[in-house]
Amino acid sequence: MSAAAEAPIVEVRGVSRRFEKKLDFVARLARRAGLPVRKEVVHAVDGVDLAIQRGEVVGLVGESGCGKSTLGRMVAGILPPSEGTILRQGCDLRSLGGSEARLAKLRTQMIFQDPYASLNPRRKVAEIVGEAPLYHGLVRRADLADYVDEQLRRAGLDPTLKGRYPHQFSGGQRQRIGIARALAVQPDMLVCDEAVAALDVSIQAQILNLFMKLRRELDLTYLFISHDLGVVEHLSDRVVIMYLGRVVEAAPSEEVFARPNHPYTQALLAEVPRIENRKRHFAGVQGEIPSPLNPPGGCHFHPRCPYALARCKVERPVLREIAPGHRSACHLNEAT
Amino acid sequence: MTAPTLELRDLRTHFATRGGVVKAVDGVSLRVDRGQVLGLVGESGSGKSVTGFSILGLVDPPGQVVGGQVLFQGQDLARLDEEAMRHLRGNRIAMIFQDPMMTLNPVLRIDTQMIETVLAHAPVSREEARQRARDALGQVGIAAPEERMRAYPHQFSGGMRQRVAIAIALLHKPDLIVADEPTTALDVTIQGQILAEAQKLCAEHGTALIWITHDLSVVAGLADRIAVMYAGRVVEEGPVEAVLDAPLHPYTVGLIGSVPSRNRRGAPLNQIPGMTPSMLNLPAGCAFAARCPRAAPGCSEPPPFVEFRPGRSARCIHPHAEGPPA
């Protein structure tokens, strides 16, 4: 573990991301005529603070539409935040100039969910993996072939297959190509967005083992985004749980699974099907996930929360420490 | 003894492709009784979905049921003509698909689709049909069904659409429902709600349910019996507890071992080496032999499906005797 004095590898401060739908012609006309037409704004990520230390594996959990992928993309530097700052080792990427910023961005790479959609079908594997390191001057053209072979071998692929196209590989192998491509630019951090969600159980185990092996070998830091709590529990040192754009709970892995604090976390953990549970009675959290276009006021979870108080409807709960390293955003913690 | 709700005997569904014959389902025998839940588990390409489609006679060319029997309450569906099959499908037997948009017509309102389904099989008035549709929606936990019925499928969320699809499957209180990965695309909290509905249904109406999934954790909580498929064949079958706690087939052992919660946190997961074989080019003997840690020379012969104990079968000549090694 890193010393406390060292700046976190990534620090997210008060970051929000909004997506706005531009008004179309009819809506603009209507507005000019004095009708109450408003722009539709989705608060995908709403005031999130998060620090990741070097060498940590942080699991980011939440259901569809909770903003976990959007946050991941901002951490990876492929989407700018609408508000707030993202510090990379204490340094704001936006303050850096051209080539410096480019090299700094290379150090965070992303692994995507769909290994079918994230690889260019018209390029051979060798080109997919070799393009970026060559462009960024990390390897000389003369050494490129050996370099690509090494990347593929490290990701568990046979380098003799590098003349093939992505469609000639299975899902698990394609995910390995994606990993080889990400590692080819020598990052120190990987953002994995549902990287094993599309894979069969036995293949998923192979890829998860590969992630753990690479972590040891290359001293990588991971932000592991997943809806699968079983996978996150297995892999992560720390777990962050999001609901409708906000972090509701963050704590070390054992802590979250042993003593979940937020009612949403408790509900989520109760619903996870586990192989150990036989013939259980499914109850289900009541209600649907509200639309992020029009989230409920106060605590976003209050309409589905069995313990909601009057205060929960109006006041947004702050994420505060309830035990060492364990933070939760719930008014109930103050009531007692 | 009454006949089981569904019994498959040596079902064979093959696809004639340019590359050769794909034996997607190759000699599958299963049974489900009234009110029972059978979990049909397998990875992509194991033939679990094709088995489901074969039961309802929904296999499209070049696929064809080439052998075996599909006995529904003693009647062989594989020999039934299309017209007779139409009377059963959606009436006595229903299917729920992974993607509810496969079931729902995007340009028709929910009520139109549901009333049509009721009238197709029941000689009732339109008003009565509407009433039944409304009740079915209420049953699957859709609030304000009267109002939501007038919506189009795109106005629903994924979980709601799946509930509508389930409500449609329930309209005629079928004796058998085949559910093909119905919760795979849904969030955990919504999945919990759908599983609760499914459980209630079997308990209240005595509907037999075949739940097709790749997720062992889901069937662990839901099913009475589990059948594990690999490369077009059932490799192991038995009660949930027996299959999950003391699996016989090395593939089942590997599958259970690769579930993260079965492993110590942070430790390498048990993994099955290699990948599923190409269905065009299956080995003559046991299809799993190339990946199997217990493979022996005898495995090059096709292994028989042996009943080791009553209700406990596996297709392996070197089964694990008392569960997986620690």
Distance between the termini of chain A: 34 Å
Quickly give the CATH architecture of chain A.
Answer: 3-Layer(aba) Sandwich
Shape of chain A: globular
**String of helices and strands of chain B:** EEEHEEHEHHHHEHEHEEHHEE
Total of helices of chain B? 10
Rg of chain B is: 21 Å
Instruction: Walk across the major sheet of chain A and give the strand order.
Output: 6-7-8-3-9-10-12-11
Structural class of chain B: alpha/beta
Q: Give the averaged pLDDT of chain B, no decimals.
A: 86
Q: Kindly report the name of the CATH homologous superfamily of the domain at 34-45 and 84-92 and 172-314 in chain B.
A: P-loop containing nucleotide triphosphate hydrolases
Strand order of the largest sheet of chain B: 6-7-8-3-9-10-12-11
Return the CATH class of chain A: Alpha Beta
User: What does the largest sheet of chain B look like?
Assistant: 8 strands, mixed
Describe it:
The complex is a heterodimer of chains A (336) and B (326). Helix content of chain A is 31%, strand content 22%. Chain A has 11 helices and 12 strands. Chain A has an 8-stranded mixed beta sheet, with helices on both faces. In chain A, strands 2-1-4-5 form a 4-stranded antiparallel beta sheet, with helices on one face. Chain A is globular and about 70 Å long. With 326 residues, chain B is of the alpha/beta class. Chain B has a domain at 34-45 and 84-92 and 172-314: P-loop containing nucleotide triphosphate hydrolases (Rossmann fold, 3-Layer(aba) Sandwich). Chain B has 10 helices and 12 strands. The longest helix of chain B has 18 residues, at 188-205.
